[in-house]
Each structure stands twice: as C-alpha cells, then as structure tokens.
Specification:
The protein has about 140 residues and is an alpha+beta fold. The protein is about 40% helix and about 20% strand. The longest helix has 18 residues.
Length: about 140
Amino acid sequence: MADPQESATAAPQQPLVMQIVVRRDLLDAEGWGVGPLMAQVAHATSAVLHETRERSETQAYLHDLKNMRKVVLQTADQTSLERLVNLLSAEPLVPHHLWTEQPENVPTCVALAPNRREAKIKKALDKTGCRLWKG
C-alpha cells in the first residue's frame, strides 16, 4: 500500500502539450505566406493525432477539448528540421509526423503527439535550435 504522505508530496503531473515545429526559412527566404504555413501546421497536427489515436496520451488530450495546449516553434531550415526528426526517431521513439508538401516534396513542419514534455523532447528541441515562433 502506498504511503499517504508520499502521495501528498508527489510532484503534479505535467499537462499534455503538442509541439509543432515549422521551418522559418519558408516564410523569410522562400516567400511562403502565413496562410500556407498555417495549413502545413494543420496538416501535420491532424496527421499525428490520427496516427496516434490509440495512445492513452492522445485520447486524454482529445477528451479535454477546452484545455488543449499547443506550442508553435520555429527552426531555421530543412536541415535543422530533419535533424530534429532524426533525434525524435531514435529509441525510445517520440511519436511525431513530418509533413512534406506535395507535389513539391518539401518538408515543412513536424508535429509531436501529445506529451508531457519529457526530457528527451526538450533535449531534441534545444539541440536543433527550436524556439518560440516569432510573428
């Protein structure tokens, strides 16, 4: 049986959040508009939620519609986006979806499945220079 005092002092669980990482160079250097980039984010987010619909974290995230949390991050370019995907794909795998725009075959963004900001995720985002999207 668990010690009641131990349960009372346990750290609260982090809320579920989704991180969406978008290539900043598409806006700044490649001439993509904000609207098309928002569509890329919607595609990636829909895809990862569909692909992970059986995970308990995704189900809990979708069950609480009024408290969904997302953070949109930027990364410099295709190279940094691909590096992030490689880090997320290493064991243990972090569920994610890399959206590649067709027919151009351009990787645009990656959406992470709902998560509790595990250390591996924070480390991967930091290592690839991800930071909050700035207007």
